[in-house]
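$ run holo --ligand "thiamine diphosphate" --emit tokens
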Amino acid sequence: MIKHEHLSLKYMRREVLPTAFCPGCYNGIVMNALFQAFEELGIYDLRKYVFVSGIGCSSWIPSPYIKADSLHTLHGRAIPVATGVKLANPELEVIVIGGDGDLASIGGNHLLHAARRNMDLVVIMINNLVYGMTRGQAAPTTPKGMVTPTTPYGNPEEPMDVARLIANTNANYVARWCVSQYLFLKNSFKKVLGEIKRGFRFIEVYAPCTTFVIRRENKTPGQKLKELMNTCIGYEKWEKLPAEERTKHIPTGVFREEDKPGFLDNYKQLIARLKR
Amino acid sequence: MKRMFLSGNEAVAYGAIDAGCRFYAGYPITPSSEIMHMMAKLLPEAGGVFIQAEDELAAINMIIGASWAGLKSMAATSGPGFSLMQEGIGYAVMTETPLVIVDVMRAGPATGQATKAAQGDLMQTRWGRHGDQYLVVLAPESPQEAYDLIIEAFNISESLRTPVVFLMDEFIGHGREVVFRKEPGEIKLVERRRSSDHEPLFGSDDPRIPPPMPRLGEGYYVLVTGSTHNEYGYRDVHSFETHYKLVRRLKEKIWGNIDKVFKYEVIGDPGRAEKAIVCFGSTCRSAKEAVMGLDNVLLIRLITLWPLNYDLLRELLSNVRLVVVPELSLGQLIYDVQQVIDSGIKVVGVNKVGGGVPIYPSEIKKALEV
Amino acid sequence: MFKIAYLGRGGQGIVFAATLTAEALYEKGYYVAQLQNYGASVRGGSVLGYVVADHEPIKNPFIEEFDIIVVLHEEGLKRWKRLVEKSKKIILDKKLVKTNIPGAIKAPLSTIAEKEGVYQALNIVAVGAVFSILDIEGIDKVIDKLLQKRKNYEVNKKAYMIGKRSFQHHNH
Ligand SMILES: Cc1ncc(C[n+]2csc(CCOP(=O)(O)OP(=O)(O)O)c2C)c(N)n1
Ligand code: SF4
Ligand SMILES: [Mg+2]
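-- output --
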């Protein structure tokens, strides 16, 4: 009998399984999509990949679950640490995985500037609409009106559309997919790991927190996933919607795609000029 | 040796390059910016990398990443930026990341007086971060010493796998003096111990010997975390034993190596002296002039400010009846002195801060007359 | 040992006067220390720049009594009057410094600089004045070399020579 093993296992540290994520957490879908992308690209060993994360549930994906070098850094500081790693050794592929709070709130400034520099990093932001790890408080991505422990009367603030914000910078690649759009998500991962191999590549994954968003809506993760299939639509379609319809949908797709030189190419050029 | 005319800030940059520093990230701030300007010029020529960070939070974290990728790394700043760097320095302590952080002190708190020398960050270098954490703090008194000592700072950071804070002030940073720059062959460099198989990267039987440190990408599947971790890097955020063992080891790594890292200078005879001066940094220059010709005064200049050899300080001060502590602050080093002397011995602070006015030899002399 | 200070107002090039003096003495083989105290802004505010030079390494660069201090603006005295009064030889610009200090020499440096068309290089006139007093062999050649490396060589050179001469005229 051939024992059939899940493809993700070969990229994971088995000794720390099962993961500490809540049952039904969408982080697992993101991990599978990422590992499937590696497998389809024929990358079976991640020793030349360095994963950098901050603090949050999503930041636990690489640390300790992915079998590769990983730096689990301070809350919000994954991007600068990743920048240091990449600049010090350009041979390494450096991937940041983090939450919406980590990357867009406390680390928001680093995100903007790494994008402006077109820094040679892949950044995967899991937007679960809240601060999952600290029990579901409002994040900069929390929809207006949503009730959380820090917005007991409904969130008075407008959320931030992180992907479209970054699409307005100098980044090489910017996309957003819902967890319900698994194939698109996996293909985006393949794109930034196998094809566009330089510059700033940002992928937002819309993945509401099972425990602090979906359960509060009295839904199961399965029900929510089905619902997301209607909620998440291509942004061209979304743009044609009337204003009141727009707020009910999430525009997804590839917002930006280029293969221009990243920070390192430009830096190398500067060095070459210096030597001449 | 090459004779040069350099500011302390320039001397730090040349020293860092000569020590093998190949990565610098920083954010401009007076009175430290010249270090950044120099590194921007020197590093690309030396095959290193320079980056201007978006803020000091980014700067400290970039050098942490670069250090794990294998490069000797440095950032320089002043009070406001040093405050922002604290969380990153704490992370570097917890993850045993070798780094050098230069703080060119100006008068604070807050924005204070950007161009005016001060020594008010002393306690912050030791205790500025949360939790039980220890690192090494060095303080030169002149541009020449800034050059020589920054090389030592890199050597200590590499050999103990620790961040080292290099504490200067505006007088040293901006003051220009003759500096002799060494030739490559004249410098002894220390490199971090690289990994051998199976040796844990975050634990050692003898806490005084830091664990080895691989470069990222060498196939060790390194797990680095600022959360409490066991000797293999796995997070363990619940157990008493794991946490206690880790912070005890990190403390012992610094204090257990005090003989190697504690540097000081003594002028005078501890056996005969009735009075003493205890000082650090540029202030000692005035103190040295003040004691010229006075054979009953002992001068103790602390070059290493942390860990501090309290036993030695106690012994040196055991015969005196008066200690003068000049500081460009309202007094911080004075607490160290008060800790080691018997009650009944007088301790007098000469405190002056702001306006960029130094403590003059005459003021120290006057305090000695008590 | 030489202890020389320049005092004035932001924008007068006080720090450069100290730099030129320090670098010249450095080139002559001295151990030198150069420090300054200035406001954050370029214009206005007092600026003090000074130099200590010796054949031995400098023990203490924090000087209380200067051998020579040249004061080019009233503004500087507001802050550093006590320091000026302790100096051995005090040179006050006749026109730009109103305050009288007992024993000080009032020299018309700015007046002559203006007449000769080198007013913008008054700081270098002051350096010339200092070296006319110190009289270090071969210093003019070193100064010339240092000025050649910088902008406005002609004006600066002229200013230096005026400083060297004018001061002697008015004191001997
Ligand atoms: C400086 C700092 N402030 C606050 C915290 C507490 N904290 C830990 S995780 C977190 C929020 C995480 O949210 P997010 O990044 O969205 O990740 P998620 O858990 O939702 O995946 C916060 C506020 C911290 N660790 N550090
Ligand atoms: S709190 Fe939310 S994001 Fe965190 S593990 Fe649970 S379901 Fe996932
Ligand atoms: Mg979140």
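-- notes --
The radius of gyration of chain C is 15 Å.
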